[in-house]
């Protein structure tokens, strides 16, 4: 069986009509690839459309403020991607005159662009013969060839990259083949060779797939590295003054939600009660005589799961007798980029 021919034939019949696929312009391709890191297509597509509408060119994105970019990105997670996206757009617009690098090795020099993203842009925009290797590719190749190598290891990625390059059509007479092959193998992993319970009965490779023959589909690919989950407890103080204004602060420390806005935060080692939170209200947040009441929204914390952290979040309402200094109005609050858990809280009030 000719793997690449069967794969490409399947792709041409089954591919999704995605907005970044009908172009070789590197700007929307780069934008989509950054967005789809750690994000499923169904979730990422509306964000892509919003971004391409707000910032139709790399110059538009470069000229935007970081807050505008973060606000549009709100809810997509992994916000360092948005910050890197913005900084790279500024570099391309200012230093490169709006012209994207045209080779894999040059694309790798861009901030936020790793091996996978560089390969995707290089092949999709410029038809460079360079394979993409993401989770879909690991899954398809490990199952088809029965490769039980640990995909958490860098040495395994090198082996899979070499195998994908060997399989990739390189015929000069069909310059689009590298791009089509890369799209095809990722699409096959996304639609057919899915992580759990793939329907192998309708798979075009079911007569040749070694994992299917050996009843190993459910155990491949192999990934040994287990992610350590950290538990954190966030207590947000939601100030409400007689004008309806509140208090927010910018999260300037490195880590999650960098440069997003949030309510004043008390982080604890475990879930705490009313008395403890009342004793920990930061000095300077409000004068003691201004405090009318402190009460919790709900009885339980909200669990917000990130890839490496579980956040137990509780909101506490502080009502004040006088207007707070530097208060933020409800309208201003709506315009600020905030973590999605805070956005959802605001929307539900």
Q: In the CATH classification, which architecture of the largest domain applies? A: Orthogonal Bundle
| H/E topology pattern | HHHHHHHHHHHHEEEEHEEEHH
CATH homolog superfamily of the largest domain: Hypothetical protein, domain 2
Helix content: 40-55%
How does the overall form come out from the CA principal axes?
elongated
Point out poorly predicted stretches.
none
- Per the CATH scheme, the topology name of the largest domain is Endonuclease III, domain 1
Q: How would you sum up the major sheet? A: 5 strands, mixed
CATH class category name of the largest domain: Mainly Alpha
Output the radius of gyration.
24 Å
Integer tally of domains: 2
The number of distinct β-strands equals 7
Would you tell me the overall average pLDDT?
92
Look at the helices and sheets and give the structural class: alpha+beta
Number of helical elements = 15
**Percent of sequence in beta strands:** 5-15%
Ends distance: 59 Å
């Amino acid at each position: 069986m000719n793997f690449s021919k069967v794969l490409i034939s399947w792709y041409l019949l089954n591919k999704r009509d995605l907005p970044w696929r009908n172009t070789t312009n590197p700007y929307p391709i780069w934008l989509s690839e950054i967005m789809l890191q750690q994000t499923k297509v169904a979730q990422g597509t509306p964000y892509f459309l919003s971004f391409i509408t707000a910032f139709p060119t790399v110059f538009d994105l470069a000229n935007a403020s970081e807050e505008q970019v973060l606000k549009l990105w709100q809810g997509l997670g992994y916000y360092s991607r948005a910050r890197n996206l913005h900084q790279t757009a500024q570099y391309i617009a200012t230093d490169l005159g709006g012209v994207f690098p045209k080779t894999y090795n040059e694309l790798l020099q861009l901030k936020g662009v790793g091996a996978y993203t560089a390969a995707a842009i290089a092949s999709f925009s410029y038809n460079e013969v360079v394979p993409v290797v993401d989770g879909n590719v690991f899954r398809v190749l490990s199952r088809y060839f029965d490769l039980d190598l640990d995909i958490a290891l860098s040495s395994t990625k090198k082996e899979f990259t070499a195998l994908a390059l060997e399989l990739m059509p390189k015929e000069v007479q069909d310059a689009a083949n590298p791009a089509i092959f890369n799209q095809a193998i990722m699409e096959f992993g996304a639609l057919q060779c899915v992580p759990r319970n793939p329907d192998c009965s309708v798979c075009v490779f079911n007569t040749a797939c070694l994992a299917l023959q050996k009843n190993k589909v459910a155990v491949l690919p192999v990934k040994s590295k287990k992610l350590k989950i950290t538990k954190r407890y966030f207590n947000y103080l939601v100030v409400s003054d007689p004008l309806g204004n509140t208090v927010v602060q910018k999260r300037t420390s490195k880590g999650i939600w960098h440069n997003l806005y949030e309510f004043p935060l008390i982080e604890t080692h475990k879930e705490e009660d009313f008395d403890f939170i009342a004793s920990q209200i930061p000095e300077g947040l409000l004068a003691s005589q201004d405090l009318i009441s402190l009460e919790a929204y709900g009885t339980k914390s909200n669990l917000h799961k990130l890839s490496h952290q579980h956040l137990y979040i509780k909101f506490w309402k502080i009502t004040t007798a006088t207007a707070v200094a530097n208060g933020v109005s409800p309208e201003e609050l709506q315009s600020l980029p905030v973590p999605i858990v805070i956005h959802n809280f605001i929307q539900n009030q």
